[in-house]
Amino acid sequence: MNVQVPIPPDVEATVRACIGAAIAVHRELGPGYREVIYRRAYCLELDSRGVRFECEKAISVKYRGWLIPGQRLDLVVADRVIVEVKSVPRLLRRHEGQVLSYLKSTGYRVGLLLNFNVNLMRDGVKRKVL
Distance between CA 103 and CA 98 in Å, rounded? Predict the structure, then answer.
């Protein structure tokens, strides 16, 4: 029997803060820009809200006891939540797989996939949990 452990309240609060910041960025910019623009604006928004984050965090992937460097995460927010920023016509399974692989590699429980190339930001938010 696989019982899912609930996400702690502090992590849920961070998730809400992440989504709120994404909505603010999307309201200001709307769809149509490149990912790098949204990522930079998102970092500025988090910073203006006093939310701690690391941008382009380097991680290593474990393989049979070895560590393979070279992977970068768009953002890690409050040392609790991984955020992957996209600006694509639609999210694909491989985008979701990307976030799940990041969660497995880091041990974090929650990842957000944010696609800013949508009319309403709520349609661009995917939450992944391990």
Answer: 9
Nearest to 75 by CA among 94, 48, 47: 47
Contact 87, 35 (CB under 8 A): yes
* Tens-digit pLDDT profile for residues 14-38: 999 999 999 999 999 999 999 999 9
Q: Domains in the chain and their CATH numbers? A: 9-129 (3.40.960)
**In this structure, are residues 118 and 90 in contact, taking their beta carbons and an 8 Å threshold?**
no
Residue-wise pLDDT for 28-80, tens only, equals 999 999 999 999 999 999 999 999 999 999 999 999 999 999 999 999 999 99
Please give the Cα distance from 115 to 33 (Å, whole number): 11
d(CA 19, CA 12): 11
For 14, counting Cβ atoms within 10 Å of its Cβ (0-12 exposed, 13-18 middle, 19+ buried), the class is buried
